[in-house]
Fold RBR-type E3 ubiquitin transferase.
Amino acid sequence: MDSDGEMMSDVSSPDDFLDTQASDDDSLGDGGFGDLDTGFDDDNDLFRQQRNPHEVEYKVLNPAEVERERQDQIAEVSAVVGLSPELAAVLLRFGQWNKEKIIEMYIDYPERTLDRAGVGPVTEGRATTEMIPGFLCGICFDEGDDVESYAMRCDHRFCVDCYRHYLEQKIKEEGESARIRCPGNNCQHIVDSQSVELLLSGEIRDRYHMLLTRTYVDDKENLRWCPAPNCEHVVDCSVKKRDLRRIVPTVQCACSHEFCHGCSLPDHQPAPCTLVKMWIKKCEDDSETSNWISANTKECPRCQSTIEKNGGCNHMTCRKCKHEFCWMCMGLWAEHGTSWYNCNRFEEKSGSDARSAQAKSRASLDRYLHYYNRYSNHEQSAKLDKDLYLKTEKKMTSLQSQSGLSWIEVQFLDTASHALQQCRQTLKWTYAFAFYLARNNLTEIFEDNQKDLEMAVENLSQMFEKPIPELAQLKVDILDKTAYCKKRRVILLNDTAENLKNGEWSFNVEW
């Protein structure tokens, strides 16, 4: 049997179904950014606000809502094609829950569609176990007229004990559910939920249904599990994979965790997912190496090979091209005469040319370190701010007792702490984004916005760390600076998102 991804893209042939799924059901419209609704169907419309350009539309589902949505789709397809819900579910899982395509394909090619999905010929009646005279199990070779056996539509019959053990192994140990095949040799028929309900019970059956729900979420492009620990919510966002180069779909779960719906990483606006992955890989591969290379090596003036000085003598010989030069001034060693261990020369043309070549070769390294150091600094500051946030409640309690303010009145500290965390996260990723930007007028505007936000965040951070007796007098200033930080962050993200959506940014890397 071919893989699940080989179905038809139109009703003329069922061979390439999934290749064009991304182009169907394109609910993204203008890139996921809505226009201001000017209708007044209810009172809430009077207060409806336009989303910011950096925001996307999404909704959060709990496990019960996900399961209800899954069952609704199964029931709809079952009613249209006239199959049992169990078989309709197998078809939908094969087609990765694109019900419109599945219905079209089944209507035009019913037998071939069933065969490719692993359903096989449809039979009437419910699944039952049987005792057949002269039966011999092909797995354990148990035989006898009193041996209880089971077979699906493919008629590969095995004893119930072997069938049950096979299913338990697939579900419990391998975590399989949606594509469990018949245990018959090379059989491609899929075990449906009716068979599982008949043969299994208790925890194994519950795990089977839980895995089916997880498979449903994993197969649907618009659904993603919240990556926060112990969170069971699912976020539904309509941004397609093909649009992730121009949209950063940041969502917030009901547990308050903010993450990117495209890659499940924590919020990384304004950098698109592809650049984020490139940056993370570069940092993992290059950051420590680049710092060490910058501090401890130089390039050979002739062949540009990187050389580490492993002795006290300044007389260097490149192992690759055998070029002899001075470590201090990079000039030809033959021009040094008797200056073997110390060099105060600067005027030789050979040394000047070598130093210029080395400066050019180190320019890209220095550029990377410039952005990495600032990225790393904000990452470290965010961790310190998070530690500070964990102590915020204690600080709020102390301020309340020392100043006579109510608990509601000291909430400004909690608001400021959240703003610091959010702005640090944004600033961190602005440097990763800036590293890949090609310089132009838009880049200068971006850097100005980045600078304004950075200064505001540092000022707020300094006020937030003041001694508790001073915080009551700084309440108004902290509230003002918190609002200003939020405003500058939105301005930066909106400007970046608009230019990204419209394809205005130029990048210095292919991605």
The longest strand covers residues 58-61. The chain has a mean pLDDT of 82. Residues 130-218 form a domain with the Herpes Virus-1 fold (CATH 3.30.40.10). Residues 60 and 253 are 6 Å apart (CA to CA).
